[in-house]
TrEMBL record:
This is Acetyltransferase. Keywords: Acyltransferase, Transferase. One of its GO terms (cellular component) is cytoplasm. Its EC number is 2.3.1.-. It holds the Pfam family Acetyltransf_3. It is an enzyme of class 2 (transferase). CDD domains: NAT_SF (cd04301). The keyword Nucleotide-binding does not apply. PROSITE patterns: GNAT. Signal peptide: none annotated.
């Protein structure tokens, strides 16, 4: 069994980051957000279809996207989360992939992602999540990664299961989307599962 790094080592690796790690895949790259990403970010998070399973309503204007970019940068500086832009071969924003809720003590984080509707069904989210998980387990040294989804989000569940996540439970009425309350399906992936599945 591989012994994961100490909590101190994980915290030190997070603290040592100078900027968003740049992660390159065959078709996409994960990079930090730029100011000129705001219109594409608004197109992503302003799409009601994309947001129907999220814990917030769709954005109403591009100013919200600009504010989100500022918050993403601040959160990165504070090491609260690493929210990458998923960029295509032309370096245009086509989605978002995030590691958040870091716990160095417990050597875990949570994974989240969203993708422009035009990119659905092409394996892009899987490629982006794979880049983030490889970094989380191989570079950062996490022991576990969690994900929480709306139980009605069958596409996200299928993706997470393909990545090796296991459904571990369900929290009843745990988040609101507008006035609608929904459960949360909880999934987990161990570093040993990830390495064994590659």
């Amino acid at each position: 069994m591989t012994v994961s790094p100490t909590s101190e080592a994980i915290a030190a690796r997070l603290a040592a980051l100078e900027d968003f790690p740049l992660l390159q895949g065959p078709r996409v790259r994960l990079r930090g957000p730029r100011d000129d990403d705001a219109p594409a970010l608004f197109a992503l998070f302003g799409d009601a279809q994309v947001m129907r399973h999220w814990s917030r309503p769709p954005m109403q204007d591009v100013a919200e996207a600009r504010a989100l970019i500022a918050d993403i940068r601040k959160s990165m500086q504070e090491r609260r989360l690493i929210n990458w832009v998923i960029a295509d071969g032309d370096d245009a924003l086509i989605g978002s992939c995030t590691l958040f809720a870091f716990s160095a003590v417990h050597r875990r984080a949570e994974l989240g992602y969203a993708l422009h509707r035009a990119q659905w069904g092409r394996g892009i989210a899987r490629e982006a999540a794979t880049l983030a998980l490889n970094w989380a387990f191989d570079h950062l040294g996490l022991h576990r990664c969690d994900a929480g989804i709306d139980p009605d989000n069958q596409a996200s569940r299928a993706l997470l299961h393909r990545l090796g996540f296991v459904t571990e439970g369900r929290q009843r009425e745990s988040f609101f989307v507008g006035d609608r309350v929904t459960d949360s399906e909880l999934l987990g992936l161990l570093a040993s599962d990830w390495r064994g599945g590659r």
